[in-house]
Amino acid sequence: MLGPNLIVVYALLYLGLLFAIAYWADRRADQQRSVIASPTVYALSLAVYCTAWTFYGSVGRAASGGVGFLPIYLGPTLIAALWGTLLLKMVRVSKTQRITSIADFIASRYGKSQLLGGIVTVIAVLGVVPYIALQLKAISHSFTILQRFPEVQAAAVVETIPILHDTALHVALVLAVFTILFGTRHLDASERHEGMVAAIAFESIVKLVAFLAVGLFVTFSLHDGFADLFDKAEAAGMLNPFIASAEHGYENWFSLTVLAAFAVMMLPRQFQVAVVENSGEHHLRRAVWMFPLYLLLINVFVIPIALAGQLAFADSDVDADTFVLTLPMLHQQAGLSLLAFIGGLSAATGMVIVETIALSTMVCNDLVMPGLLRRWKRLPPEADLSHLLLRIRRGAIVVILLLGYLYFRFAGEAYALVSIGLISFSAVAQFAPAMIIGLYWRGGTHSGALAGLLSGFGIWLYTLLLPSFAKSGWLPAGFVEHGPFGIELLRPQQLFGLGGMNEITHCLFWSMTFNIGAYLFFSMRRAPNVTETAQATLFVDALKHERPGGIALWRGKAEVKELQGLAERFLGAERAQQAFRQFAERRRLPGLEQLPADAETVHFAETLLAGAIGSASARVMVASVTAEETLGVDEVLHILDEASQIRAYSRELETKSAELEAATAELKAANEQLKELDRVKDDFMSSVTHELRTPLASIRAFSEILYDDPEIDLEQRRRFLGIVVSETNRLSRLVNQVLDLAKIESGRADWQTEDVDLVELVRQACEATEQLFSEHGAHVTQSTPQGACLVCGDRDRLMQVLVNLLSNAVKFTPEVDGLVEITIDETEAAYRLSVADNGPGIALTDQRNIFDKFRQGSGGTHKPVGTGLGLPISRRIVEHLGGRIWVESQPPNGATFTFEIPRKSADAQGVGENDDQESPDRG
Amino acid sequence: MHRSLLTRQRLVGVFLIGVLLLYSPALTLFDRATEWAGFPLSYLYLFGVWLLLVILAAVTVEGGDS
Known about the structure:
heterodimer, A: 923 residues, mainly alpha, Sodium/glucose cotransporter, Helix Hairpins, 4 domains, five-stranded mixed beta sheet, two-stranded antiparallel sheet, 67% helix, B: 66 residues
């Protein structure tokens, strides 16, 4: 049913689908419609962490060590919570400096050192090749097992097959072609591969679905759920549920966590997807929880599958590493078996593709380039090097995969899957001190990083890799058992006599001790030099500023043409010219010709090149076409300081300009108000002149008559003089009131604050206006409370208000039965005094502006006499005393003017006194 | 800026909770051969803490948006 040929067809169909997805994503990226610009795709692509080692190996480890495998996923879960700072910093730094690999990152941090980049590359290749071998082994083994379907072969018997017929070799070659197609279709300045990321995200879904499908089948179809499975395992004595039950349980628990936490950031493929392929810093937010969730989901069924496998294969020696595949096979599930195989295939191919792309970039930029650069010093290179770069990378991919195959062929059988994975983890963990400490401590130097890496790597080689060779029979077994030359103290897995722990913990302890120790010791032997200081600042302060600009730390002589020529050679003419044109546009220059050969341009060219050939090589290349002057440490610090000051200034400028805008708006508003006041003033002036002119005109007219005509009779003369006198009175009253109003409005009025009894005030006002009332034949009634109504105010001013209201009221009363009522009401905080008349009332439209200057009630049959300033003055007075005044009227049923003055209390007194004190200041 | 700084600090808090629950003597309280509802206690505890960490991290980074 599932012959070898059919499996190959399915596998190739799956790979074809992957390539179609990658191709489609690349096309979309070219059209600026990226499919990977999504936090979910980013989180899924990080799951390239789960390789065949997870897919097959976790079950194997769970079968032998219970929950002991979990730290490999708990470590990443914990460290993911720190990604908000740690990974963000790495991404920010890498984007600014166009860092394209972990080797480039470390080289760049410690002064763009070619040596450091090369060493990191060597460690990465040596550490990761066994891991690639593991994937090849997983694919070829799962293929071998599946092609015998439905028969489950006991142990995977590896006969010696000729190399050319070895499935693993074919797998390696197919994957090499695939990786070349994915990873090196063109040379990108930022080394991003959108298609590859899309394919990897898809693979993450496939392997999760496949694993969950097998898990659900095993748990709920073969058994009655988790509890049932645990019961059966318990009965069979296979349940190994707790950590302490394993040998060195807690030690492993801790050291594996640390190792995995380092690995998830330091493995070249993780750096590639998490940092280099990151297309937006905000994607990190989702990864912080979604990636751990993915790990959780893919681990839920590991223990059930392990237990079910042990139950099913209790009396045969089927390898626990294959349970994911052999359990469905045992139960004749062809479809599920194939799905499991495809899941394992996707886990393995995903890892191989990303890992080899990342390693090929490192090999090209940090191993091959420096050598080529040295050769080109003697022998000028050809014009266009971009094709050469691509050829180097493709060659590196093939070589790395063949190395993986060779390792698998000659050493791969020595160890179970899990051990190989941990050897790789331990190797890349050596990058952690130089990476992480270097991101937070400025003091780390080139020699410190070099010493740390070399000593850590040395310990790894001695305590893990060489013993693994010994176990494979390449070295005498006595080397591990009795130490080299029989020196017991140097036994590789009990170094300096330290025993009692497993090999991984042992290696982690000694390698980290030597690594961190050497890093700190050599870093602190001398102060960092110029380039180290500059780079340290760029790395350590990466998060301090919203958008870190590339600070141009360069001084010397350069030619733009030469820089551009250099870029053209490595990137191709078209790409380089486009990049330079965009740079000129960013600097707002009309064309390339205007581009000055200053520090900024040189920095730009160097970063551009760094994307293609690595920062260290880029620095060397740029130095070869420019004449750079050396900067001193002080100068560098000065420039960096200046740059941050400039940023501070620009921030300050921003706030200042915002303040300025606010002030301008305020000024505008004030200006509008002034204009309005000016208009009011003009109106007031014209009203005043108009009011003055009317009496003046009649005074003048009657005076002229008297002057011109001496014959005028006495009776007539008396009448005319009477008019003149009354008009003069009106005139002086008007002038007094205008002056009064102006005084109150300007705040120069003299206020005599004292206790005033409103009842007493009403009585006095009635007396003062008695004459007026009797002239109009009107009555006045009072309705006041018993006892005194004390308010705090100016007695004369209040009297002025009351008299004004009374005289207004009496003016509008009808000629017969005129009635004016004065009422005092108490409210909680104030006294309310109203004056009501039975006149014609005030129209609603007039009620609103009756308190404005020169507005007079017009409701009467006769023209009202008065200046039109009485009510405005009254309002000013009442408001000054902390009260308010208003009118209520429903024509033709009279009008009621009411004012309210706060009762005399501690508060009211305060208001009055304050105003008193303020008045002189206003003048 | 302040908002993201706060989120980062909270995430460090989540990290510390994880370290406390998984890598301190607190772990030994649950690392026993006892069963609870048919599940070994240690499995339940480990996966429970794991889920808790995922939820805390999710609430920390996604909760701030609304």
